[in-house]
Design goal:
The chain has about 70 residues and is of the alpha+beta class. About 10% of the residues lie in helices and about 25% in strands. Strand 2 and strand 3 (about 20) form a beta hairpin.
């Protein structure tokens, strides 16, 4: 499965029925691109680092289009 890392340890994430929580140390919160049918951290919870098998090929910082090669506006 391919998922997008949406939150790192210590970052706030939505917790159904509770409100928000934090991703525990040594875990990531992942989301699928097709949210309506994706089985991801919204259902399975945060994923331990040991379960990750992918290699990062691109990292985009939120809110920083200049480093991502994306249009920055006028």
């Amino acid at each position: 499965m391919i998922k997008r890392v949406a939150a790192l340890p210590g970052e706030a994430v939505p917790v159904p029925g509770v409100g928000t929580g934090k991703v525990p140390a040594g875990h990531v919160y992942v989301l699928g691109d097709h949210r309506a049918t994706s089985w991801d951290s919204r259902h399975a919870g945060p994923i331990p680092y040991e379960r990750l098998t992918a290699v990062i090929v691109c990292r985009v910082r939120r809110g920083d289009a200049s480093t991502a090669g994306l249009p920055t506006g006028t």
